[in-house]
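question for whoever is on the cluster today: can someone run the full assembly for these? two chains, 854 residues total. i dont have access anymore since they changed the login thing
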Amino acid sequence: MSLIVQKYGGSSVSDAESIKRVAKRIVATRRAGNDVVVAVSAMGDTTDDLLDLAHQVAPIPEPRELDMLLTAGERISMALLAMAIENLGHDARSFTGSQAGMITDAQHGAARIVDVTPVRVREALDEGAIAIVAGFQGFNRGTGDITTLGRGGSDTTAVALAAALDADICEIYTDVDGVFTADPRVVHRARKLDRVTSEEMLELAASGAKVLYIRAVEYARRHGVTLHVRSSFNNNEGTIVYNPTEPGRDENGVPVEEPIIAGVAHDLTEAKITVVGVPDIPGKAAQIFNIVAKSGANIDMIVQNVSAAATGLTDISFTLPKSDAQAVLTALTVERDQVGFSTLQHDDQIGKLSLVGAGMRTNVGVSAQLFTALFEAGINIEMISTSEIRISVVTRADMLNDAVRAVHSAFGLDGEAEAVVYAGTGR
Amino acid sequence: MSLIVQKYGGSSVSDAESIKRVAKRIVATRRAGNDVVVAVSAMGDTTDDLLDLAHQVAPIPEPRELDMLLTAGERISMALLAMAIENLGHDARSFTGSQAGMITDAQHGAARIVDVTPVRVREALDEGAIAIVAGFQGFNRGTGDITTLGRGGSDTTAVALAAALDADICEIYTDVDGVFTADPRVVHRARKLDRVTSEEMLELAASGAKVLYIRAVEYARRHGVTLHVRSSFNNNEGTIVYNPTEPGRDENGVPVEEPIIAGVAHDLTEAKITVVGVPDIPGKAAQIFNIVAKSGANIDMIVQNVSAAATGLTDISFTLPKSDAQAVLTALTVERDQVGFSTLQHDDQIGKLSLVGAGMRTNVGVSAQLFTALFEAGINIEMISTSEIRISVVTRADMLNDAVRAVHSAFGLDGEAEAVVYAGTGR
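^ ran it for u. tokens below:
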């Protein structure tokens, strides 16, 4: 008997009919002889509707109360899902984050899991029941208060339960068929990946692929949880996200031939800020990024141009989420005389393309091939950054889709048939 | 400094605007120098909407899961109310039934309070915060599960908190101005009562007055909690429901002149069943009402006609909620030969009028005056039952409103002006 953790996103439980459909799938998994634990998100747009209400009564809702409010969403979906399963003749029991032992710190709205003690979930399984756990929510022991895990929290709930219960697999159900070599809405010949390493998945997620949240992948990687990303709308096999025992081997130590490139991710959510005319003396970069850090912004790529010896000045560019740009511009402007730069440039018309693949580590020439492909497609590169298994480049925003298609083709990723494209993203 | 518990029903918090209005009223009470604890119901039709959803996924929802589902309603309203108060610059903290220490038995859907330990509510008050508690919900220690208190549960939550915290008063906010001498929609000259004893309120509630639920009044009476039933839509004084220290004295032992009659209640929700041709031998009534009790029905009035000596047979009539009638008819039919009656009659066109007043106890002639008033209005009486402070009569359903008006007038209850009539009932 296997223990399977399944996660269903809001689009998979958007109304009574879809809840009944998901209930059938869960019962089928149980009847196939598996123990089943389910983490479920709030129905469809419930969370957004509750947020709307909150902003109607208070422009800046109190974080503790906002968490109390939002957790009502999963409470509704999990209770309905448990009822629907009971109605199919199978014992089911729903548990809040607190009842399921999802212990977090006290950071309302973005709490981090500090311990998982799913005693009641285990009891329910031992009694033959299917356990339904509210995604996205936790409980702080110190304050006794309810918390939420932030964006993608239900994925994290599922992975954390899978780790704590030593599950055989954690299935992430969404409204797409799995992880693709590129966004099928941009690259019509994008292929579904059968397998991808958690390291690659992490880079893909960090580079704009929306099918899984970084935090959940990180958690899965750290705790050795194997994920299966698949659609709740069909029975197709999805994508296995696995943790290699060592490079070139799969999660069971069996040798595998790793493709050099897993996929191409793209991201239109970042802006670029350039600090122009920075004195080229030691400590200036540190000074600038301390100011940026204090404003709470998350920096992504950084490029410092070679100093023009004649002037003794240099330019420093960095990318960051568009939503953080204004705060950073303000913070830097305040400290302008202190730092001694001349002007700030703000560019929110950039796009980022990332090529990700574990095989890249042992394969020289990938960058050259990437730059050639972009050059041949007539696309200018504005910034470059690399990790061991990723190369990212910044282009003009309006050239990004062309860039993704050109690179996808150049690395031989195009499939035979057109990928099926869905409307939503399964969040 | 007084401690005031306030309860707001669903119609008082039906949307963001009304939540903001209620928040202002709560803050005003706090700023007047009182400690404030609030019990709040789910917004408007939330509970009905959730019930609809439940029945869409399962014809007979599992009771544990139904409670889990329905408690989402108060979670939403209480968090929004706390945010709205914080937004007015006052500290507020919301608590679920479990967090507020509302300990119940494990009877899902109709749990009874077994203990109230509002430690966190008290802490919040000590720290100067306004405490917002989810009405209607509790927590069972044995199972660790969430429960609900059943119909009118938020009133009960408020009263139980007032008792446990030794509050000075428990204000029940609704959409009518208080308790009236009769339903203002039937008797246009019905008067709002300034004061009524909890004993009278209990009889009025049990006789069909909808402004307060019996269980809450019972709880208030048993624990000596003074209630103030008033409108959340204006600042008028409502009706004080008090516990006399002894007959003829108020809650503080001050002598009061009690009116003979507090009011006239009416009820169209009952049906009458007559068991015809019962052998007039000892034990037959017990046999019949054992069968009725087993079917789970709540009997109200019982009348046994004098036996016709010649036949040795008698008829037994009783009233019960219309919704229970079919189950009782079936149960009796099954046992017909065993009991030995001839036929069953089912009448769902009856109405019940009840005259309630603590002064009735020491005042002879009230029944005679009641029967005279009904006779003069041309209304036939089909059944009669009495308690120490109540007389109830059954009439034809279509004569009930006329009967209520006639009796209201005959006992001098008519006010000078027409009562303001509202659409809802504040549930």
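summary bc i know u wont read the tokens: The interface with chain B takes residues 16, 19-20, 23, 50, 53-54, 56-62, 64-66, 68-69, 71-73, 75-76, 78-84, 86-87, 92-94, 99, 120, 144 of chain A (CB under 8 Å). Chain A has twelve helices and 20 strands.
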